[in-house]
Known about the structure:
- The protein is an all-alpha fold and about 100 residues long.
- The chain contains 5 helices and no strands.
- About 65% of the residues lie in helices and about 0% in strands.
- The longest helix is centred in the last third of the chain and has 18 residues.
Amino acid sequence: MSEAKFNEAVKIVQGLPKEGPVKPSQEDQLYFYSHYKQATIGDVNTPRPGMLDFVGKAKWDAWKGVEGTSKEEAMKNYVARLLEILKKAETEEYKTLVEQLEAA
């Protein structure tokens, strides 16, 4: 897994329109978040957010759940999940993104 492919995948995820044909579920969003953090930072290095920060806790828990995963494996999993989601969309735009990502 090249870092260029991972960076391309991150760019695609960040550019997905909120109301487009591909709308990652909350579970997918947490998956991308946790694997991005694991690939770029490593294991969790902050305390768990307070009990009223529900979003922060969900993100922290997701990241904690992939603790011990190598940077390479986290990048590979991130790209694989994005490809899986993009391939479900039957539009030319997303087929082009799949080709672009696979070529990176």
